[in-house]
Design brief:
globular; 10 helices; Cytochrome Bc1 Complex, Chain D, domain 2; disordered N terminus; mainly alpha; binds heme C; 2 domains
Amino acid sequence: MKRRLVSLSGTMVLGLGLGLAHADDIDAAARIAAQRVAVGTCATCHGPQGHSLSPKFPVLAGQHAKYLVAQLQAFKAQTRGDPDALGYMWGMAAPLNEELMTSLADYYSRQTPIAGPTGGAALITRGKDIYQNGDSAAGIPPCGGCHGAAAAGTDDFPRLAGQHVQYVMKQLRSFQNNMRNVAVMHGVARGLQLNDMEAVATYLQALGP
Ligand code: HEC
Ligand code: HEC
């Protein structure tokens, strides 16, 4: 009876450990391998620790790991098909295996995000209004409903705070014309005019962690 209890609690501890582990089950060797690839390869475009300097390349610092893995898988499967995804990331993702994707995502999600440059006040005011309230006449829902009040994102919705204006606008246009084919964001972006895309992107770029 006593032995049975002991082994039962052993199983429970193991089960709990597995349930909680997640990012912590990335071993030291995998972490080092990911850091080497991040510094040696990805940083060329995505910058040191994922703080990309060129607005053509998205900031990865502080992005959610689950979202990052999903994007790397989509590049590898060639289902994220906007022109820059095809031109830059299909080739980058092709040689990555699941373990390296998971540890690269973990690496970037642990980097501290920062606010980007501030843009024009009128754009920010309009952008904040769209972000918080949407535009019901144009059929645009409030962005914050999914991406969070401070645009910090969640496991299921990407972080947008601090992202480059140019990259955000490019993605919104790709969702609109379905080159990046995601039904939910197609619905959101369908009614967005170019000046409103710029406004909401300008608002987002200046947001810090
Ligand atoms: C030669 C430049 C270049 C290199 C090197 C590069 N990337 Fe990218 N990456 C891009 C571009 C450009 C995009 C944006 C694609 C688009 O517009 O859809 C991107 C997008 C991404 C995204 C999607 C981000 C988001 O917010 O949706 C992830 C994740 C990513 N890259 C990870 C990596 C990783 C990991 C590496 C290293 C193995 C890497 N990239 C190397 C250019 C590069
Ligand atoms: C109903 C939920 C929902 C709403 C509302 C929403 N989004 Fe999204 N958004 C998503 C999801 C889900 C994704 C991830 C798409 C994917 O898997 O590629 C996303 C992705 C994005 C991306 C791409 C991020 C990146 O790193 O590439 C941008 C930019 C974006 N949303 C902007 C907005 C803006 C601006 C609004 C408001 C006008 C908005 N979203 C409203 C769900 C939503």
